[in-house]
Amino acid sequence: MTLPPKPWPTGHCEDIEPLIRRILAPNGSPFTFTGTQTYLIGTQEELVVLDPGPDHADHVDALIAAIGQARVVAVVCTHTHRDHSPAAKLLSSHFDAPIIGCAALTIQSDEPRADAPFDQDYAPDRVLEDGDSITGDGWTLTAVSTPGHTSNHLCYALEESGALFTGDHVMGWSTSVVAPPDGNMADYLASLDKLYQRDDRIYYPAHGPAITKPRQLVRGMMGHRRQRERQILRLLAEEPRVLPEMVPLMYKGLKEQLYPAAGQSVTAHLLDLERRGEVIRSGDLWQTTS
């Protein structure tokens, strides 16, 4: 999806539907589309702040102005990438509200660490498990565990409206990057299937437009990942290859600045195929087992 023309409506509080408002952070990039979308969920009297976004003064000021005198029941995060959770600490302090939602991220791996993009200062007062809820006057927000993009990723269902807030698991402009060692392709596909089994009316992602045909999109996303998997197996069946050789062959026309992100998802596929015994590696060289 191409970027819409500027100016983007950063700092503007948009009424999306009853119980839902949205404010765009000024952090647009090739990796975040027009920026991170923070959602105010609830009423003018009582609400939660979902994905408070980056620690950017203009964005935090816009959130504080939009919240006004409402009681903030909680500041809620889908996951702890630095474009999603750093402002939680500031809003929690300003409104004397707890930080509730995903767990803090702890990577247990011997692989090179990939947590530089994560918010190391995130400290939740309460961690939600799958099916746990936060309630207010006339609204209920329920956590849906969706690991894959990150191991701590949660989506949230607004029970009264049929809306699902999908963070980075399902986005309105691009497929999600799955970056090992924390990102896991098998978990990501299982989480997509979990959402496919649900009957949510609409998805509100952290980046990009709302998704009005969610099951159709999720089905296409699962098919896209299986297509990438088959593409990898075809390339390796021709000859053993190293990752930097595979990315430009798989992503025709992709800007080189995005090769590292694409390479992370290819690595996630390779690790999943290795776990299933379909590929093996010798140093940096990958090949099929058949």
Automatic annotation (TrEMBL):
InterPro entries: LACTB2_WH, Metallo-B-lactamas, RibonucZ/Hydroxyglut_hydro, Sec-metab_biosynth-thioest, WH-like_DNA-bd_sf. CDD domains: metallo-hydrolase-like_MBL-fold. It comes from the Bacteria. Residues 35-207 form the Metallo-beta-lactamase domain. Keywords: Hydrolase. One of its GO terms (molecular function) is hydrolase activity. SUPFAM superfamilies: Metallo-hydrolase/oxidoreductase. PANTHER family: ENDORIBONUCLEASE LACTB2. This is MBL fold metallo-hydrolase.
